[in-house]
Design a protein that fits this description.
There is one protein chain. The chain is an alpha+beta fold and about 260 residues long. It has two domains: about 200 residues, Bira Bifunctional Protein, Domain 2 (BirA Bifunctional Protein, domain 2, 2-Layer Sandwich); about 45 residues, SH3 type barrels (Roll). Helix content is about 25%, strand content about 30%. A hairpin with a 2-residue loop joins strand 5 and strand 6.
Length: about 260
Amino acid sequence: MNLSVKLIEYGEIDSTNEEAKRLARAAAGGGGGGLPELYGTVVTARRQSAGRGRRGRDFLSPGGDSVYASFILEPLGRTPGAGAQMITASAAVAVCLALEKTALCKPKIKWVNDVLLDGKKVCGILAESVKHAVILGIGVNINLKDGDLPEDLRGAAGSVSMDTETRGRFFDALSEEVFRCAAEADSADEAAQSRLIDEYRSRSMLTGCSVFVLRGESKTPAAAVGIADDGGLVVEYGDGRRETLRSGEVSVRLS
């Protein structure tokens, strides 16, 4: 994948994902002919006034030196296993690799789209589709202080410490890894897809944990036993039945 990364920077915007979608829709207005030039674009901002997370939730974007970026990718589907699950998995791996290379830390992945450091969430990921494109939004908390977060989030949300030079190297590494991992997620090369999932598995914090599978108001106890080849979470219920989750959420069962 030989894309030249094109950067669009804002001080503050409603949502980098929303802006990326606006750009993609405008480029697709003539039947998609303008989109190839848009692939490889990264929309980034220092602050978001209306950041969004999965399932319609708000994504708090308090600023600091945090990275809020949306990557405009070619549509998935060149291979049967490619889909939203794989692109989200690829993004989580990309964030971890970039943090490991530059911040010299050891993040973990909580299925499906959270990256944690020292047990606290430092990154959220949101993949969305528009006509002829995939928008991959990534938010990484950097150099936040306790006062930057609401009191009810301080126990769950974390932040990565970086100086200015490291932050710049992290952003460059993140851009490189996002496009590389996304290409592997949609590669016809089975070995490339296998390497990507192995990277995800090696950082999965849920494997071997007791969890609750959340569906609406129900919480079903289960054990997380592994990550499937397509990025789904394999759980085993008390009766021995196994299921591969490809959507939804789980929470860690503490007792």
